[in-house]
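Bug #77: duplicate submission created two jobs. Keeping one. Sequence:
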Amino acid sequence: MCWDQWYQLTAEAAGVVTQLVHIPSDFIAACIPETRGGLLGDKAVSVVFDNTKIKRFVPGYCATVPFTQGIRQTMA
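Kept job's structure:
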């Protein structure tokens, strides 16, 4: 999922309407210089996270709670 989807699902679980505003990292870094390293470093590049490695070490591992259900449980 992309970041917008994570935020959308989290907002729905919280019972609020999502109002996403996309602001360029360069602009934020210019306004708040102490955020520059994190914003323009590791967060400036898209990445994919997966659970391949844990599945290799724990072959029987199987995620059973989808994010939508888990975030609703967290909000509750």
